[in-house]
Amino acid sequence: MKVTVFGIGYVGLVQAAVMAEVGHDVMCIDVDQKKVDRLKEGHIPIFEPGLTPLVTSNYEAGRVDFTTDAAKGIEHGEVIFIAVGTPPDEDGSADLKYVLAVAETIAEHMTSHKIVINKSTVPVGTADKVNAKISSTLSSYSKSVTY
């Protein structure tokens, strides 16, 4: 299965590595070009036991790749994971701006059916917000694509 993961931090990179290890074709998307370049060179930005050889071997085998090209990632994935940061907002609640920005980006670029999974650490009700963002963005582009 072709899988796309937005965000290559603690949640996204581990998810991507495990999905690739079991045979899926995984594309990881991040906004940080330096992080993407370093991952392609085998430099893993986080510590998780066993993660470095898992990422390295799957990258070398072509089962996982890294890019900043969101459109390419959306076209690639049948299943798209949102695994971006949710820093605390001013009131201590989860700031969902990155999650919702990815949801909007997915809708802007999708041209076929996608399954969107929120893997970010978010409060109850966020799936409804992601759904609303994707739906409203699809409507504004007059797209009749399902997800």
Describe the model.
- With 147 residues, this protein is of the alpha/beta class.
- The protein has a single domain (1-147), classed as Rossmann fold (3-Layer(aba) Sandwich), CATH 3.40.50.
- Helices cover 44% and strands 15% of the residues.
- The chain has 6 helices and 5 strands.
- The chain has helices spanning 10-21, 33-40, 51-60, 70-76, 97-109, 126-140; strands at 2-6, 25-29, 64-67, 79-82, 115-118.
- Strands 3-2-1-4-5 form a 5-stranded parallel sheet, with helices on both faces.
- Helix 1 links the parallel strand 1 and strand 2.
- Helix 1 packs across helix 3 (51-60) and helix 5 (97-109) packs parallel to helix 6.
- The mean pLDDT is 93.
Strand adjacency order, main sheet: 3-2-1-4-5
Order of helices and strands: EHEHHEHEHEH
Give the CATH level 1 class.
Alpha Beta
Distance between the termini: 16 Å
The CATH architecture name reads 3-Layer(aba) Sandwich
- Strand % is 5-15%
Number of domains: 1
Secondary structure tally: strands: 5
- Average residue pLDDT: 93
Q: Examine the coordinates and then state which fold CATH places here, giving the name of the CATH topology.
A: Rossmann fold
Radius of gyration: 15 Å
Structural class: alpha/beta
